[in-house]
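Exercise 7. Given the encoded structure of a 196-residue chain, write a plausible sequence.
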């Protein structure tokens, strides 16, 4: 999509000559994003791993991901899976373009960010499943289930760090304040950036 193809009701002048502000993230996407982030921090660093609060926050995180997956099917345009399909080949092309100095702004997730989003969702789902399994008679005390649960949490923390690093890098690369966009739902795009 080019800058000229953005419809008038999706863009408005942000007060800077030629700059655009585009509504991208709806309230449910933003609520789920920050609630999931908070639940991961609380469960990873503040709750007792053996306590019921840890268990319920884990189920809450799993529920948030399930709602987000459903929203990916029926939500607004930028929230749908079609806006950021998981495509490793597109991610490779994107990385090459970035290395060549491309500063194109993706209205939804860029291809590499899309892969990270799906990775985080899948990891949370499997952590939730193994957490549930550990509370059942069949899998209670089974070492491999506990090991998978803990290993995936470690992987999730690595993924979160990479995600934050990617947000910082992409903000620097494009000039679009991505954290702000996940707070107010709007991407503030500099005038010299093309859109995709």
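Solution.
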């Amino acid at each position: 999509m080019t800058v000229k193809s953005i419809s008038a009701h999706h863009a408005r002048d942000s007060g800077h000559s030629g700059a655009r502000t585009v509504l991208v993230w709806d309230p449910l996407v933003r609520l789920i994003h920050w609630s999931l982030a908070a639940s991961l921090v609380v469960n990873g660093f503040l709750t007792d791993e053996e306590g019921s609060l840890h268990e319920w926050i884990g189920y809450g995180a799993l529920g948030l991901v399930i709602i987000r997956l459903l929203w990916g099917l029926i939500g607004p345009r930028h929230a749908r899976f079609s806006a950021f399909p998981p495509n490793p080949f597109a991610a490779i092309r994107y990385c090459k373009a970035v290395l060549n100095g491309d500063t194109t702004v993706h209205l939804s997730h860029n291809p590499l960010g899309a892969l990270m989003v799906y990775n985080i969702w899948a990891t949370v789902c499997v952590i939730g499943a193994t957490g549930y399994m550990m509370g059942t008679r069949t899998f209670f005390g089974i070492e491999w289930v506990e090991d998978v649960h803990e290993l995936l949490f470690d992987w999730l923390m690595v993924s979160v760090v990479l995600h934050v690093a990617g947000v910082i890098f992409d903000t620097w690369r494009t000039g679009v304040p991505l954290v702000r966009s996940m707070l107010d739902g709007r991407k503030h795009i500099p005038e010299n950036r093309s859109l995709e």
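Remark. The chain has one domain: 21-189. Students should compare their own answers with the one above.
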